[in-house]
Write a structure and sequence with these properties.
Layout lengths: L18 H4 L3 H23 L3 H21 L3 H26 L12 H22 L8 H8 L19 E6 L4 H13 L5 E5 L2 H11 L5 E3 L5 H9 L1 E6 L6 H10 L2 E3 L5 H18 L2 E3 L7 H16 L5 E12 L4 H16 L1 H7 L21 E2 L6 E4 L3 H14 L9 E7 L6 H20 L4 H7 L8 H6 L1 E10 L4 E8 L3 H19 L7 E3 L1 H15 L3 E7 L1
Parallel strand pairs: 1-2, 1-4, 2-3, 4-5, 5-6, 6-13, 7-10
Antiparallel strand pairs: 7-11, 8-9, 9-10, 11-12, 12-14
Pfam families: Sacchrp_dh_NADP
GO biological process, one term: glycolipid biosynthetic process
Keywords: Membrane, Transmembrane, Transmembrane helix
């Protein structure tokens, strides 16, 4: 395949072209661009004067000033321009400080003074160009020049970076965030489960994407882009029938582009603020375009969401009316932990601490639901004895999100799940005489875990233990398992239980299968749901259940005596 450069996209502001600088606070940006060069130049002017020493220092420090320009800028002309600006500011400060401090010593200045400016400008620009050349080799290309630079360094037998422009819907699926921990697992699953699908790998780093493709043994196209660029995200969304994202809340620009382009979208986000924002900003757009925007397509929250949907569907089919008291119990769980879990919990905690209004909003049990007549429900916050099953349970860690998500499914379903539908989640501790004490102990243990995951005090330790991109071992993933049992009583008094489970790690191996099958369903199944910000059960209903069953998941509904 010949090299096809990605279409050049215009810069959306100076900082948009400098990823590291753009992530800095305003004060650091001002320091990088202005204060630092001014103070540095002034100090040299005051200390060394305009002399050979000043010439040497100005040249040396200007070269140092070119380092961030080359490392942070995305384009060569931009890096050189910023180096020139930094060098000029630096040299001008040397001259100004010297003239102010030594007004009678102006004769040593070169004539014209512009020669001295060149001693600052030229070295900084040259340094920026050299640094940019080396830095660009590992950077995601966002312009045609950047893509050509990457392509020059791939072996001839490898396919080059693909353009996201081209015939409408040239792909069935684009997997974005493919080189992350869950992204790699999802790509591996898609390669095995859908060998004939037209799939592309997307992310920021073209080299990592091509290395992943080689590891998978596939010839899928590779798309390197920064989704913060509106045009790039728009072109990617327009090129495919469905997008799967593994970068959680960071994927909002891509979700927005899909909503505008009528492209289905699936991700793994299980954060109430993010999904609430998506509903507020994207639901109406997606309704108009027909896009199905589906969040939480992993362990959070497919077992709860799909299992409850199947219960309601079975009760209706049996003529037993709607659901009333419903409880989801995590009976078995064995799995690992990753940096992504930690990052998500830290971000959610920081957002809630910074915004009291947001805390109040997401405390509402119906924070994600479409407003309906039903507003009475609550989530357990301590160990409790469930009135439906008679079992002692501890509050589930994922319960606050899952319960709000299930209520959204009920509110989006025609007729809902029943006027008396009440939903809660818990973690099972068995049925022994010590079950109450076990539930209390588990509740304290989960509270401590939540503290570890959200506290700033533990962040340095957890960051060291869970570096970015880390996750459970292959053995942990293979030996994992989960089993969720969802019990309900209908308006006629009938009792049902739905079971969703799998014999692999729930948060990673099972999640990658659930995400992969969700995006395959969105891309290829004859779905009848309308567009909007939906849930997996509303968007894909029995299509997703059938797909997961075919992958070895236990999915069943049975009526109890």
């Amino acid at each position: 395949m010949t090299a096809v450069p990605v279409k050049a996209v215009p810069a959306k502001g100076f900082l948009r072209t400098q990823p590291r600088l753009a992530d800095m606070r305003g004060a650091r940006q001002v320091w990088e661009l202005a204060v630092g060069p001014v103070l540095g130049g002034a100090l040299v002017g005051l200390a060394a004067g305009i002399s050979l020493t000043a010439y040497v220092l100005a040249t040396a420090v200007s070269m140092i000033g070119g380092l961030p320009a080359g490392a942070q800028h995305r384009t060569l002309p931009g890096a050189v321009a910023r180096g020139a600006i930094t060098g000029t500011v630096w040299a001008s400060s040397v001259i100004a400080a010297h003239l102010i401090a030594h007004p009678t010593a102006s004769t040593p200045l070169p004539d014209p003074i512009a020669w001295f400016l060149a001693l600052g400008t030229v070295p900084a620009s040259a340094t920026a160009a050299v640094v940019w050349f080396f830095a660009s080799r590992g950077r995601a290309p966002v312009t045609s020049k950047a893509v050509r630079t990457v392509n020059e360094h791939v072996s001839p037998e490898e396919s080059a970076v693909e353009s996201v422009s081209g015939p409408h819907r040239r792909f069935d699926i684009v997997l974005h965030g493919a080189t992350g921990f869950v992204g790699r697992l999802t790509a591996k699953h898609l390669a095995a489960a859908a060998p004939d699908a037209k799939i592309a790998l997307a992310g920021r780093d073209a080299r990592k994407l091509m290395a992943l493709r080689k590891d998978l043994g596939v010839q899928w196209p590779v798309i390197a882009l920064d989704i913060r660029d509106d045009e790039g995200a728009k072109e990617l969304a327009a090129s495919t029938r469905a997008v799967a994202s593994t970068i959680g809340r960071h994927g909002f620009p891509l979700a927005a582009a899909c909503a505008r382009q009528g492209t289905s979208y699936a991700d793994l986000s299980g954060e109430v603020p993010f999904v609430r924002r998506s509903i507020t900003e994207l639901h109406d757009l997606a309704v108009r375009s027909g896009a199905r925007i589906v969040h939480a397509c992993g362990f959070e929250a497919i077992p709860s969401d799909l299992g409850t949907f199947l219960l309601a569907d079975r009760a209706r089919a049996d003529g037993e009316g709607g659901l009333t008291e419903t409880v989801s119990i995590l009976d078995e769980f064995k799995g690992g932990f990753s940096a992504g879990n930690f990052d998500s919990n830290q971000a959610l905690s920081a957002a809630l601490k910074a915004d009291p209004a947001l805390r109040a909003a997401i405390a509402d049990p119906f924070a994600l639901a479409v407003p309906t007549g039903s507003t009475v429900d609550s989530d357990p916050v301590s160990a409790f004895r469930d009135p439906l099953t008679g079992r002692w349970l501890a509050p589930a860690m994922g319960g606050p999100f899952n319960s709000r998500f299930v209520r959204r499914s009920a509110s989006l379903t025609e007729g809902g799940y029943g006027p008396g539908f009440r939903y809660r989640e818990g973690m099972g501790v068995g049925t022994s005489p010590l079950a109450r004490l076990q539930a209390v102990g588990l509740t304290f243990g989960l509270s401590f875990m939540k503290f570890v995951l959200t506290s700033r005090l533990t962040r340095p330790i957890m960051t060291r233990l869970l570096p970015p991109g880390s996750g459970p071992s292959e053995k942990t993933q293979e030996n994992g398992l989960f089993r969720v049992a969802i019990h309900t009583r209908t308006t006629t008094g009938a009792r049902y239980v739905a079971t969703v489970g799998a014999s692999v790690d729930p948060g990673y191996r099972a999640t990658s299968i659930m995400l992969g099958q969700s995006v395959l369903s969105l891309a290829t199944d004859p779905l009848t749901s309308d567009g909007g910000v939906l849930t997996p059960s509303v968007a894909m209903d029995h299509h997703l259940a059938d797909r997961l069953s075919a992958q070895g998941f236990e999915i069943s509904v049975r009526r109890l005596p």
